[in-house]
Amino acid sequence: MRRWRRDRVLRIRMGALPSPGMQPPNPPRRPVTIELHGDRYVDEYQWLRQRDDAVIAHLEAENAYTAAATAHLTPLQETILSEIRSRVEETDVSAPARKDDFWYGRRTVEGSQYPIYVRWADDPAVNAPGGAPGDEPVDILDQNLLAADAGYCGLGVRMISPDHALLAYSVDHTGNESFQLRFRDLDRGEDLADVVDGTYYGGAWSADGTAFFYTTIDAAHRPFRAWRHRLGSPQSADVLVHEEDDERFWLDVAFSRDQRYALILLASNATSEVLAVDTADPDCRTHSVMGRREGVRYRADHKDGRWLVVTDHDAPNGRLVAFPVDDPAAVVDLIGHDLEVKIAEALPFADHVVVLGRRHGDPMVRVLPDHGDPHDLDFAEPGYSLGRTGNLEYAATRYRFTHESLITPLRVVDADLGSGEQHLVKETPAPNYRPEAYVQRRVWVEVGEVAVPITVAYRGDLELPAPTLLYGYGAYESVLDPWFDPALFSLLDRGVVYAVAHVRGGGEMGRSWHLDGRMAAKANTFTDFIACAEHLIEAGIALPGRLAARGVSAGGLLMGAVTTMRPDLWAAVVAEVPFVDVLNTMADPTIPLTVAEWEEWGNPALAEDYSWMAAYSPYEHTVAADYPAILATAGLDDSRVAYWEPAKWVARLRDVTTGARPILLKTEMGAGHSGPSGRYDAWRAQAFILAFVLDRLIAGPTHPPT
Questions:
Q1: Which of 357, 373, 431, 590 is the most buried (most CB within 10 A)?
Q2: Which residues pair with 190 in a beta bridge?
């Protein structure tokens, strides 16, 4: 096979710097002295928290500087955007999912930013062979119409009533994740007069469809109240169902799988509780499924008069137990604790229970029949993502899930719950994509006594070592399983290796993986990522001096930490909405989410917690060094990581860097934590980032090699 040589693109000049006459914004320094446990810090940029006219002007100046500094990349950005679009079937319809006498799905239309949610009537006269609907769907919610001329449009709740007559939906037009809840009559296609403001995610209907449970947030943007709204009544008449006074806890509302109960989910990072309301009697009092015990987490669902509970009580990796609703003492184990297998969630079906978990770093699905032996579903590919989708029918005999990897487009699959046989329902079209041209493999890195997995993808004809982009997260026990991104191939086709480091702090390898990367052990997340980068170089995969890093949110903290710890290792760092002002944020309980986050990061008011946070907090550790090229992003309406964190960090980086590489800040002035809401705007934002990375790694040719 003919090898594609790296020097075909490396011969181009390396990324351009801003022109000599172009100066970055120079915000005034207004020093504030902060003292914590005897240590004194000077924060010159605390004033950026004020969000007044001067701050807005500064952020706009930063955006103008970033636009000018990257103007030479505009042709490459436009090329990448075109490439992304060329790999997406812009007009498409999802796999329909059945519920009672209807099928539900969504469709997209070329040129439209947002999806259109649809349904089909279950009419045997027009349905296609195999049971799927064959006629044209009816639009029930067009997000493009909801967006109108707004720059941002996010959906929170989208839930059909049990009788399929109504749709509850909520909309956010700012990006700050505060939603307005509405109710649509699906026969008439018109909204009811009911309007509920200031809601959050989560919801559940009463059995008769006359009441809806929803959540609201407090001043710290913590969902803390569950309400019951009666259709036809004003919001002022809504009934408070539960208020969570413990500021460590978040509140959510959901249906049980059989829709028998509305479940109020209360969870901190270390403890949880589930309250239940009978949907047939929505006015009844709540009752706790298993109570609340400090340091014990559990999830519950209902099946045939019993609670199915996944709990970590005396079982760090989880175990599945069951007990009658009216006899909580009669607990039986369905799946015991296993050090090699993580049990995360149990989904009841009429005659089966589907158990979701993890084994050896990959997702796992186990089927427990009501009668018969358990069996696991088989997935041959090393490194993949699974998601559950479309399981609307409690009585279904198939479990529907999605499967994808870095090089496998997302597939919708039905697994027969009896035999385990898998049936492909739909593969997401990926025009102009040849999967056989790419390689994905799993690499393991020894770090002390643990082995950290890395998922790596590149073109099969690429000569290694090559420029590499390493992605990471590592927090909240969240997993970073490989997913298919049409934008990725604009990197791979230009000779860049893409790698995902599954570092401690996440949940890829079970509960201990999270515990070994939080609180006092948080530094393991950063040293794991650095070890992964070094291993990629030593293994002849990554080219020294041509290694970039990228992370989002808590992954942005990871970027800040590894930048200050090893500035010499990176050619470029992309830190999206980065949580880099750790000490200042976690010391201020008035900032949204702070108190709820103390069990993940620590509380700097406590001397012990302060000691480990002070050892890595990126803002305080930004000292004189030759820093890599840096692109930080922010959202002005971000309620999770405030815009001022990346703004302060960038200002300090520019103050102390001894090098000449660009340090840039790009703030979305009309969006929040997730960036632009429309798909074309999101693709354009992605093209901007990829062009920045390519510019630093291979100087960004305008077209990939053929």
A1: 357
A2: 185
Strand order in the sheet with 466-472: 438-447, 450-459, 497-501, 466-472, 542-552, 572-576, 629-635, 663-668
**Identified catalytic residue from 112, 268, 553, 674:** 553
Whether 673 is catalytic is yes
For residue 682, the surrounding DSSP H or E stretch is helix 679-697
* Domain presence at residue 318: no
Question: Which helix (H) or strand (E) covers residue 388, if one does?
Answer: strand 385-388
Residue in 346, 354, 257 with CA at minimum distance from that of residue 304: 257
Determine which one of 221, 352, 403, 673 is catalytic. Answer: 673
Catalytic residue among 414, 528, 638, 695: 638
Query: How many Å apart are CA 437 and CA 435, to the nearest integer?
Result: 5
Both tokens of 84, joined, read: 């992304």
Q: Residue 410: what are its φ and ψ, rounded to 5°?
A: -60, 130
Q: Both 63 and 129 in a single domain?
A: no
Question: What range defines the domain where residue 77 resides?
Answer: 34-86+433-697
From 268, 296, 324, give the residue that closes a domain.
296
3-state secondary structure 317-367: CCEEEEEECCCCCCCEEEECCECCEEEEEEEECCCEEEEEEEECCEEEEEE
Element (H, E) at 82: helix 74-86
Residue 265: phi, psi to the nearest 5? -100, 120
446/466 Cα distance (integer angstroms): 22
pLDDT, one tens digit per residue, over 592-605 is 889 999 999 999 99
Cα dihedral sign for 144, 551, 410, 398? negative
Q: What's the domain count of the chain?
A: 3
Is the pLDDT reported for residue 314 higher than 80? yes
140 burial type by CB count under 10 A (0-12 exposed, 13-18 middle, 19+ buried): buried
Q: Does 401 score more than 60 pLDDT? A: yes
- CA 254 – CA 226 distance, rounded (Å): 11
Residue ranges in 539-643 assigned as alpha helix (H): 554-565, 582-586, 594-601, 607-614
Do 70 and 168 lie in one domain? The reply is no
pTM of the model: 0.94
pLDDT digits (tens, 9 = 90+) for 124-177: 555 454 456 767 899 999 999 999 989 999 999 999 999 999 999 999 999 999
Q: Which of 296, 320, 338 is the last residue of a domain?
A: 296
Question: Active-site residue 514, yes or no?
Answer: no
CA atoms of 128 and 107, how far apart (whole Å): 18
Is 638 considered catalytic here? yes
Q: What are phi and psi for residue 577, nearest 5 degrees? A: 35, 60
